[in-house]
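Summary for the steering committee. One of the milestones for this cycle was to obtain a three-dimensional model of the protein with zinc ion bound, which we needed before selecting residues for the alanine scan. The sequence and ligand used are listed below.
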Amino acid sequence: MLRRNNNPEKQNPGTINMAVARKLWIHCNRCFTHFVNRQSIMFLLACKHVICEKCVAANLGRTPSDAPTYKCPMCQQLVRGRQLGNSMPSNLKDMFHPQPWLDGIHHDVVDTFQRANCDHLDKHLKEKSKKLNKEESDCKLAKESTYKHYMEYRRTRHIRKQLEDRARQIKIQARLREEEELRRSSLAKRRKSPDAAASAALQAIVDGAKKSRSRSHSPAVPLDTISQRHRSPIMRPTITSFEQRANHSFDL
Ligand SMILES: [Zn+2]
Ligand SMILES: [Zn+2]
């Protein structure tokens, strides 16, 4: 017996009773929605395909009594259909009987119908399982690759930090060396400056002494000697002076 509001997920999460388990094979042949989930209305089409309302559109008849037709998305036939439920005609409802042999139903047709649906669902589950395994394998590879890249990133970041530290040290050393060079240069200039000043002062003293000596002994020094010592770019005429010899031979 098919009942509404019999959702196992809502009533007993994690457990499925036998009545529900016997109806798990009933599914939309196109999108694999399970009938027991009660997520959408389902139809049994005359072509023996079970289809949900999301996968097929009804072509309404010209009069209210005219039964709708459906274009089966599985076999493309234009067929009549009946909604799955307790209001189905008895011969159609028997197709979904969980134990047809107990009620004396001629169950060869029913068995064939239910077996075909079970095989269809089983094939789909195997394909899903295969796809899931592939995705799990891809996820594992992606995870390993991501971890490898992450470790590489960490190594690279460590190396970069080391290089930045080294660059900072080199800059500091270069600045210290530059400052040392400036200090030495400045010191050398300071050392050189007093010597030059001292030698200039000494030269000035020597020159001054020579001048004073030449002024005090000017008569004894010949003029030509003076002229030689103090060479001047201006050529001066030679002046002949009197010879100053004492003459005591007569009184003047
Ligand atoms: Zn569907
Ligand atoms: Zn069909």
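Key point for the committee: Helices lie at 8-11, 18-21, 90-93, 107-216, 223-229.
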